[in-house]
Amino acid sequence: MRVAVDLLTFPFISGRHALDFVGTVGKRGSADIERLQTADDLARWSEEAGLGRSIADDADLEAARRLREALYSLVLSTLGDDPARPVDVAVVNEFASVETAAPSLGLRSGTIYRKDSAAPASAVLAVVARDGIDLLTGPDAALIRDCEDPTCTLLFVDTSRSHRRRWCSMNRCGARAKMRTLRST
């Protein structure tokens, strides 16, 4: 099945790296649009997520998908859909335990700059797993929401003042809902 390129664009609208990573599968349960199709996609996600450049291969891609599905399962359990599974907890803990590189400064002609080199994908996945642990065990866990658009499966952290946010994004699903309401009147 050919998927439109815009559906393969990574959405960064959840407010957390772990949920944005879970969102690399679109339309879960209906079309299951896989946005991490290649190892290069994983490296691109890392850079677009603001986690820096990374180097990934096919084994990293498979590992990333494993982490993503474990995080998704644990988020669903947090939402009350299913009990948490020990295997998912173990997967997230396994990834979170990987050592990550420390940032470093460089100096060139008296100017300070950040020295960035491509990190192994395992380090990026460790950051995502740690964010998942912080999210699922912290105060934001109670603020995780499903987008109310029936065609959307994105999750987000509701940081609105009233905690009554309904859509993953007003520019995306909220606008479509308003158009549907307008057309039905």
Automatic annotation (TrEMBL):
<dbReference type="InterPro" id="IPR023286">
    <property type="entry name" value="ABATE_dom_sf"/>
</dbReference>
<dbReference type="InterPro" id="IPR010852">
    <property type="entry name" value="ABATE"/>
</dbReference>
<dbReference type="Pfam" id="PF11706">
    <property type="entry name" value="zf-CGNR"/>
</dbReference>
<dbReference type="Pfam" id="PF07336">
    <property type="entry name" value="ABATE"/>
</dbReference>
<protein>
    <submittedName>
        <fullName>CGNR zinc finger domain-containing protein</fullName>
    </submittedName>
</protein>
<dbReference type="InterPro" id="IPR021005">
    <property type="entry name" value="Znf_CGNR"/>
</dbReference>
<feature type="domain" description="Zinc finger CGNR">
    <location>
        <begin position="144"/>
        <end position="183"/>
    </location>
</feature>
